[in-house]
Amino acid sequence: MTTLHDKVPQGLDRKEAEVYKHLDPARLPKHIAIIMDGNGRWARRRHMPRVAGHRAGVASVRSTVETAARIHIQALTLYAFSEENWKKRPASEVGFLMSLLSRYLKAEVPTLNENNIRLEYIGRLHELPADVQERMGWAREATARNSGMVLTLALNYSARSELVDAFRSMVQAASQNGGINHLRIDEDMVSQHLYTRHLPDPDLVVRTSGEMRLSNFLLWQLAYAEIYVTPTLWPDFRGLHLLEGIAEYQKRERRYGGLNHKDAHAPAETAKA
Ligand code: FPP
Fold this sequence. Notes:
The chain is 45% helix and 12% strand. It has 273 residues and is α/β, with parallel strands linked by helices. It has a domain at 26-156 and 201-252: 3-Layer(aba) Sandwich (Undecaprenyl pyrophosphate synthetase). Strand 3 (118-122), helix 7 and strand 4 (150-157) form a beta-alpha-beta unit. Farnesyl diphosphate is lined by residues 36-41, 54, 57-58, 61, 78, 80, 85, 97, 100-101, 104, 153, 234.
């Protein structure tokens, strides 16, 4: 007999368990992508410098990652740092974010290993500072043998740049393999040349702080994703909010351009004269 105890995964707190109980474990999203937004506003409301919002955002990352792993989400991708952030924010803020990332990686690897999480990255990583790249390589290697959730951090990431890089890579592969005249491009081929070739497309994209934009995030991969926008600012976001987003996702009907179940099984209407 299945008891409530069997159903709720270990490690969820009381409020998380309450939301989880109403979820259908067979219909969890395989891959969740999150646009973490609102750190600056969180800090401003408290009359603190913007970087205090970023620092507070690390606790949200920790809670969200742990909850996602506990309920056996296969892949979680976090938009940590866009190419635009890099170019348009003061050097001092960029420097702070880089050192925050470095410290996060050093501190979190043991927890990632305890939770069987494998770390990956997407973005133009070669443009990041050499010491940060080194730390990233170390953390990836230290978690490479884990077989549970894949946690992908998008760093210096832009979806348009990703597509440009994919097209370049397809042309280069063709030129080394029979010549450009033999190049045949289809959707699978594009997907195989994206930074996300190790991942299924996200089923759900979450954006915090109420903004209704994709902000150049995974534009190809989000083609059929459900979008969940919450007014919660990222530093206030926790695993509980992730579960609420999943509950909302499970209320939606995904149609991929087809009909809903009722219409698909109804007799086709004939046009009346
Ligand atoms: C958006 O808030 C957030 C970022 C640009 C950075 C995200 C970084 C973190 C959550 C911290 C650490 C992450 C890791 C992976 C260690 P914003 O500054 O654009 O907020 P605003 O729109 O309110 O100004």
